[in-house]
Amino acid sequence: MPLTPPATAIRVENVCHRFGSNTVLNNLSLTVPQGTIIALLGPSGCGKSTLLKLLAGLLHPDAGQVFFGTQKVVDGRFSLPPEKRDLGMVFQDYALWPHMTVAQNVAFPLQMRGIARPLRQQRVLAALDRVGLADFEQRRPYELSGGQQQRVALARAIVAEPQILLFDEPLSNLDRDLRETLCTEMAVLLRQLGTTAVYVTHDQQEAEALAHAIARMKQGVIERIDYLQKPAVSPFVA
């Protein structure tokens, strides 16, 4: 069963976030059109991971609003819980449960949504096939290489067919050759899926290989956006 997740636009309006006296995001605005992949690129401390966590619902901003399509998910008084945002996220440390099999790890988001077992099994097998792990469903994470574990994490992110995918430096723990291979595979997969995606990285080559556009961040603001490929729909507005 092919996975063809829907997609939705992301709109961030005048978002500010502070940690104590340190302003991490400074009145930042960004629009990501439906079905577009944008990379957030910049040095450590520039705010890119904080912005991603705000999109995921793991942090709440001090000011500003965030919309997924027409749905407001954040404003000054309200923050929609992460599990209700219809998104998938891939972390740099894989975040797999060691006591679960590969199939159980991938199925977990579907279990949380109450999907019936037969449909869960179909979607898990389809997701694993998408990432090249069709015969690995009964293995445990400790039996896999780092690249295979990251593929499992990617399968788990796409299995529930989310509208948005978020990536927090997912390849940073891998060696250069494996990073290049997985980067190419992920670029192909994301374009096949057509899902809106935000990809945090400090590696310019990675950003250029994956994204339609790169938002270059510095000291809590987006300095400029470089367009690499034609976006899925209308141009960005920052």
TrEMBL record:
Domain (ABC transporter): residue spans on this chain: 10-237
GO biological process, one term: quaternary ammonium group transport
Superkingdom of origin: Bacteria
Signal peptide residue numbers: none
Keyword set, alphabetical order: ATP-binding, Cell membrane, Ion transport, Iron, Iron transport, Membrane, Nucleotide-binding, Transport
Classification via PROSITE patterns: ABC_TRANSPORTER_1, ABC_TRANSPORTER_2
One GO CC annotation: membrane
Pfam families named in the record: ABC_tran
Identification of the protein by name: ABC transporter ATP-binding protein
